[in-house]
Amino acid sequence: MAFAEVQSPPSFAQQLNDELRNAHPTEIIRRAYELYGPKLALVSSFGAESAVLLHLAAQVSKDIPVMFLDTGMLFGQTLDYRKSLSAELGLSDVRDLRPRFADLATNDPDAVLWKTDTDACCEIRKVVPLDLALDDFDAWMTGRKRFHGGDRLRLPVVEETERHLKFNPLANWSKEELDAYVIEHNLPAHPLVAAGFPSIGCWPCTKAVDAGADVRAGRWQGQDKTECGIHTARAPGVVSDVGGGI
Ligand code: SF4
């Protein structure tokens, strides 16, 4: 006797993704804020495309906590941009997340770990500080987009990790839509974009690229590594890594 296959009920993340998969980014952010209020964070690198999500979120609430990973290896221009853009958008709660002193002292006292083990370097400078900061939250938002290609082509608007719900309000937007939004709202560009950096992370692992190259072609050049690890999904059955915006 054959039995019909039993389907497990959709998770809350799946239900929300079904509800919001074609929604405008503002609607996605508003829904996330309605659901989670002060338990919702936004993670931003203050990189090349960050102004769009930060501006959209500021229209919903300027008080949404913004997590900024200050790895100690960022370009000076990024640190300046983090300050000027936060002030211009009126963001009231931008938090600088730094590596733990003990992790640096034990694993990278001379700040050269990036030369030999970029995964370990990202772990102590990005993954651990963000994991600790997100203990205070139930959900967070990222600036990842499908047009960045690779694994991000499968990026859902709402996904689930071991401890949090993750919203990707810009998942559906194209480069043209982002550019149009920047022009419409006269958003300031990161100063390194004009110098050929379409994606900006730590200085040792970010290079300028030729016009028309893949957005992330300048990150970890010459290595298999394409992501820093903060977006590695940990929920059972979830795609193992759907790309990092930082
Ligand atoms: S991007 Fe490079 S310098 Fe920055 S944390 Fe990762 S390996 Fe270290």
What form results from the Cα inertia axes? globular
Helix content: 25-40%
What is the CATH-assigned architecture?
3-Layer(aba) Sandwich
* End-to-end gap: 52 Å
| Rg for CA atoms | 18 Å
Tell me the number of helical segments per DSSP (H or I, 4 or more residues long). Answer: 8
In total, how many beta strands? Answer: 6
CATH homologous superfamily heading: HUPs
Sketch the major β-sheet: 6 strands, mixed
Features:
globular; six-stranded mixed beta sheet; alpha/beta
What is shown here, in short?
The protein has helices at residues 12-20, 25-36, 50-60, 76-89, 101-107, 113-116, 118-133, 175-184, and strands at residues 40-44, 66-69, 94-97, 139-141, 158-160, 165-167. The protein is built from 8 helices and 6 strands.
Chain-wise SSE layout:
Blueprint: H1 12-20, H2 25-36, E1 40-44, H3 50-60, E2 66-69, H4 76-89, E3 94-97, H5 101-107, H6 113-116, H7 118-133, E4 139-141, E5 158-160, E6 165-167, H8 175-184
Parallel strand pairs: 1-2, 1-4, 2-3, 4-6
Antiparallel strand pairs: 5-6
Helix pairs in contact: 2-3
The chain binds iron/sulfur cluster (SF4).
What would your notes on this structure say?
By secondary structure, this protein is α/β, with parallel strands linked by helices. The chain has a single domain (12-205), classed as Rossmann fold. The chain is 34% helix and 9% strand. It contains eight helices and six strands; from the N terminus they run ααβαβαβαααβββα. A six-stranded mixed sheet has the order 3-2-1-4-6-5. Strand 2 (66-69), helix 4 and strand 3 (94-97) form a beta-alpha-beta unit. It starts with 11 loop residues before the first helix and ends in a 62-residue tail after the last helix. The relative contact order is 0.17. Mean pLDDT is 88; it is low at 233-245. Iron/sulfur cluster binds at residues 71, 73, 114, 118, 121-122, 125-126, 201-202, 204-205, 228.
